[in-house]
Design goal:
The protein is mainly alpha-helical and about 425 residues long. It has one domain: Up-down Bundle (Growth Hormone, Chain: A), CATH 1.20.1250.20. Helices cover about 75% and strands about 0% of the residues. It is built from 20 helices and no strands. The radius of gyration is 20 Å and the shape is globular.
Length: about 425
């Protein structure tokens, strides 16, 4: 099955790339297409665990509270890997180039996910989620950095929107595959799709901005340079804060939707896979809408502010349900996904905030620190849940996540028309 899928991917997309994506100033050029496909497989593998969490852990004999506890542990291992990988791949992106990260990360997470299908214990599962997380950390940042640098400033918002909106659809495929196949086979398929993408590297060229500084600027990819002077640190932290609500929604409200539905006394059983699928359909449409709206309004900040208020409203609606049907929960998962669909804008903002010698370091580490925020969020959520109950705990964590996002946004300047040809 994996061979058939990878063969189809190679044949259908390889010729398309060569035929129509050669000019770098086209919105739909090779860099955009390969970045979008890479992010598609990245999201497939990233979200697959949330979908198969219950079925995979049950296969090891776990049940009841153990499913929740070990699910949180494995999710945190994956996110810890992404924190580590975000720094490593970001630095490599500025030192060695955007393409080396784009494809090195694909290779790492693809092999890790193939091995994930072979695990025999929960501990093996946890360590491979850590390794896969490290690999998954590089894909989005490298892709967005490359696309931002190869497209004219008037078009780069369209390019990054395509990458994010198409890539997020990988979660929909993951849900379909997980429903049709055993969880181990689903991991094999994800790994096979990633390895197939490596053949598309020949169609992509390094960005001219990076090539121009590679031989002239030695101080590239210094991660600690993001922490000084103080204005740069504030800018870096603000970029991270505005994305935290997205992974509050994904990592808590959506991942544990079956448990939330039980707490709401839902009249039907809610399936995690379907919740993820509907939320990511919403995310894809939200990313497309927010990206196009930012081009129309010529502003990143106004769109993020709008979507944060929209997200606040849907969180309130979701957590206020009483005895909902499964269809109602899925519809709200879709709505939450749409409102959290400012991911493309958020990552583009990070790319536009920093010079060429630090751009990949910032753009790769920022979304992974946001993804990694699931770790402290769940660590806060778990004791609050034990003390106050699941719904009040989710409210408390949600207010915290949205509050720091509004604060972070207030500290950032508009970057829509910013020229990226500069150094820190």
């Amino acid at each position: 099955m994996v061979k058939e899928l990878t063969s189809t991917l190679d044949g259908a997309l390889g010729s398309w790339l060569v035929a129509c994506m050669q000019k770098s100033d086209r919105i739909l050029n090779a860099a955009v297409v390969v970045s979008a496909l890479g992010y598609f497989v990245d999201i497939y593998d990233l979200i697959l665990f949330s979908i198969v969490r219950i079925s995979s852990l049950k296969s090891f004999g776990l049940d009841g509270q153990e499913l929740f506890d070990q699910g949180v542990r494995l999710l945190n291992m994956q996110m810890l890997g992404m924190l580590i990988g975000g720094v490593i791949w970001g630095v490599l992106g500025d030192k060695k180039g955007r393409l080396s990260v784009l494809f090195g990360s694909i290779l790492m997470y693809s092999v890790a996910n193939v091995l994930n299908g072979m695990v025999q214990t929960v501990d093996q599962y946890a360590w491979l989620r850590l390794i896969a997380g490290i690999g998954l950390a590089g894909e989005l940042g490298a892709g967005i950095t490359l696309v931002s640098e190869v497209l004219p400033k008037e078009k780069r918002g369209f390019g990054t929107t395509i990458v994010a909106a198409f890539g997020i659809c990988g979660a929909v495929l993951a849900a379909q595959i997980a429903e049709a196949f055993d969880w181990r086979t689903a991991f094999y398929i994800g790994g096979g799709l990633g390895l197939a993408l490596l053949v598309l590297r020949i169609s992509v060229f390094e960005s001219d901005l990076f090539a121009a500084v590679k031989s002239k600027v030695r101080n590239r990819g210094n991660f600690f340079q993001l922490f000084y002077p103080a204005p740069r640190l504030k800018k870096y932290l603000s970029c991270i804060l505005i994305g935290v609500p997205i992974w509050y929604v994904i990592g808590i409200l959506i991942t544990f939707s079956p448990e939330f539905a039980d707490e709401m006394l839902a009249v039907e059983r809610v399936q995690a896979g379907k919740s993820v699928m509907y939320s990511y359909i919403g995310l894809a449409l939200g990313d497309l809408s927010s990206g196009l709206l930012s081009q129309l309004l010529k502003s990143r900040k106004k769109v993020v502010l709008l979507f944060l208020f929209l997200l606040l409203g849907f969180v309130a609606l979701y957590l206020g349900q009483n005895a909902p049907t499964a269809s109602t929960v899925y519809a709200l998962c879709f709505a939450l996904g749409f409102a959290a669909g400012y991911w493309a804008i958020f990552v583009t903002i990070a790319a536009e905030q920093f010079g060429t010698n630090l751009r990949a370091t910032a753009t790769t580490s920022v979304p992974n620190f946001v993804r990694g925020s699931v770790v402290p969020l769940t660590l806060i959520f778990a004791p609050l849940k034990a003390t106050y109950g699941m719904i009040p705990a989710a409210w408390m964590v949600g207010v915290l996540a949205l509050g720091i996002a509004f604060l972070g946004l207030s500290q950032l300047g508009e970057t829509f028309t910013k020229d990226l040809d500069y150094l820190e």
